[in-house]
Write a structure and sequence with these properties.
InterPro entries: Cys-tRNA-ligase, Cys-tRNA/MSH_ligase, Rossmann-like_a/b/a_fold, tRNA-synt_1_cat_dom, tRNAsynth_Ia_anticodon-bd. One of its GO terms (cellular component) is cytoplasm. The chain starts with a helix and ends in a 5-residue tail after the last helix. It has 543 residues and is of the alpha/beta class. The chain contains 18 helices and 15 strands. The chain has a 4-stranded parallel β-sheet with strand order 4-3-9-10, covered by helices on one side. The chain folds into 3 domains: 273 residues, HUPs (Rossmann fold, 3-Layer(aba) Sandwich); 133 residues; 75 residues, no CATH class. The longest helix has 33 residues. Helix 5 crosses helix 6, helix 9 packs parallel to helix 12 and helix 11 packs antiparallel against helix 12.
């Protein structure tokens, strides 16, 4: 992208601000620099697909801001102190450290770039205690029996982020009503130590933070708006009048049967469980298939569709790469020199760039970007021109055209985090392997069934060959006849209805009749050859 275009896009980038409840032009506090703080996980178990959506959404925002040439400081924290960790009967800090590492591994699998910083609450105890002291000195918090509570009555704008009235709030909805509080909605900044929990010394006695203290540009799931982010806003404002959050950005829930996916409801799937059966790239594609602020309902059908889409995209790009391989050295030498590109290719490029910029600059809209018309027109252009490209021996406008369209497709995928870090051949093989896992088959099983089908076709047993194809399709394995060879690819499982079974029965019956007919003909021929039939009299009518 040209520098002028980049600056233009910066001015046009609009983002929804949960504080104003409107989509606003994004303008960072410091021109050219962006600080983004995203609430991470409470590390006491493996993360589920709902956590994955938040991570992927803000990873795309991070990538897009970098694409717009901003200098981005991206911070995503770990809450490594929590009551839930202690409830599991393991050393809380050991447990949280283990699951912090597991989360990092999950994020790597999903193709998320590592944030600039990944602080843990336990690493910043002195900062937290200093901030609590400052809040108390400002008259906005009070100590009682080793706890320190924030006095919401001292925060005149409490409720501005969530839109809730103070009288409607009940103790932040995270802790039980405590009669020691001045107001039931007051929330803990510091909790007195309990037996068996890790604790730190403080002016108020041994304890730990009740709420981790953070202030920056904030992001997280929509369930964090209240009470979590509302309370963060109140405490940071109480600590310093200079505290400022420019944008509050929240992603929608992942639902299961229209209910929010959560560990408390037990209706969740961990990231590990999902990527055992589905490659992380189509999982990421699924997580970006809706606008980030809308709920996303988790269904197997949608991830199956994303897997099929991913196969088509990466197969097209692999074919493109193979066909362009004889020209790669000359393409590299041409660099940024002006080259002649076919009109149709230029149209594809322009439309794809326009759709990409229009969607992402308008509140980071990733929905239908890789399944939309413009993206697929670019892939179609590549596919339709691969055959004539194979006949090219010299550099030509066609070579430059296909290379340019391919690069633009890869550019879109890169910003969405959907460009593989390995070769296309490797990712296609990985997609095959996941398809075999879902089908409950091994590669040799598919090879054997293909051989059986080939044999059935040679013997005109089309009912058998159709049944093999249909059975595999029902398991998400599509057979394709390419000349004399049959290959397979992953597909959305095809549900066989009663008519499919009936048609198979008809084909089998026809096959049986055809076989009977040929046997009958052979017997007749054999009788004639051996003289068992008197041809001179057999067809004469009796007088």
């Amino acid at each position: 992208m040209e520098e002028a275009e980049s600056k233009k896009k910066k001015a046009e980038f609009r983002l929804y601000n949960a504080m104003s409840k409107t989509v606003e032009v994004f303008e960072p506090i410091v021109p050219g620099k962006v600080g983004m703080y995203v609430c991470g996980v409470t590390a006491y178990d493996l993360s589920h697909i709902g956590h994955a959506r938040a991570a992927v959404v803000f990873d795309v925002l991070f990538r897009y801001l970098l694409h717009l040439d901003y200098e981005v400081t991206y911070v995503r924290n770990f809450t490594d102190i929590d009551d839930k960790a202690n409830d599991l009967g393991e050393d809380p800090l050991s447990l949280s450290n283990r699951f912090c590492e597991e989360y990092v591994a999950d994020m790597k699998n999903l193709g998320c770039l590592p944030p600039t910083h990944q602080p843990r609450v336990t690493e910043h105890m002195e900062n937290i205690k200093n901030m609590i002291t400052q809040i108390m000195e400002n008259g906005c918090a009070y100590a009682v029996d080793g706890d320190v509570n924030f006095a919401v009555d001292k925060s005149p704008n409490y409720g501005q982020l969530s839109g809730r009235k103070l009288e409607d709030n009940r103790a932040g909805e995270r802790i039980a009503v405590d009669l020691r509080k001045q107001n039931p909605a007051d929330f803990a900044l510091w909790k007195a130590a309990k037996e068996g929990e890790p604790s730190w010394d403080s002016p108020w006695g041994p304890g730990r933070p009740g709420w981790h203290i953070e202030f920056d540009i904030h992001g997280g799931g929509s369930d964090l708006i209240f009470p979590h982010h509302e309370n963060e806003l109140a405490q940071s404002s109480a600590a310093s009048s200079d505290s400022k959050v420019n944008f509050w950005v929240h992603n929608g829930h992942v639902t299961n049967n229209q209910l929010k996916m959560s560990k408390s409801l037990g209706n969740f799937f961990t990231i590990r469980q999902v990527i055992e059966k589905y490659h992380p790239l189509p999982v990421r594609m699924f997580l970006l298939s809706n606008h980030y602020r809308t709920p996303l309902n988790y269904t197997v059908a949608q991830i199956e569709q994303a897997s099929e889409t991913a196969w088509f995209i990466y197969q097209t790009l692999q074919d493109c790469e193979v066909c362009l391989s004889p020209f790669q050295e000359r393409l590299a030498k041409s660099g940024k020199k002006p080259v002649q590109i076919a009109g149709e290719a230029q149209t594809c490029l322009t439309k794809l760039q326009e759709e990409f910029n229009d969607k992402l600059s308008d509140d980071l809209n990733t929905s239908q970007l890789v399944t939309g018309r413009k993206f697929n027109e670019a892939l179609k252009y590549i596919t339709l021109n691969l055959k004539p490209l194979k006949k090219q021996k010299q550099m030509s406008p066609l070579v430059h055209s296909i290379a340019a369209v391919g690069r633009e497709v890869e550019s879109v995928l890169r910003i969405l985090g959907l460009l593989p870090t390995c070769s296309y051949d490797e990712v296609l093989q990985q997609l095959r392997e996941r398809a075999l896992v879902r089908a409950g088959l091994k590669a040799e099983d598919v090879v054997r069934l293909i051989e059986e089908r080939t044999s059935a076709r040679k013997n005109e047993k089309f009912g058998i060959s159709d049944k093999i194809r249909a059975d595999l399709a029902a398991k998400g394995i599509a057979l394709m006849d390419e000349g004399k060879e049959t290959v397979w690819k992953p597909c959305v499982p095809v549900v066989q209805g009663k008519w499919v079974g009936f048609v198979g029965w008809v084909r089998a019956s026809v096959d049986s009749w055809v076989a009977f007919k040929w046997i009958y003909r052979f017997i007749g021929w054999f009788r004639r050859v051996t003289g068992l039939v008197d041809h001179s009299t057999s067809m004469k009518k009796q007088p």
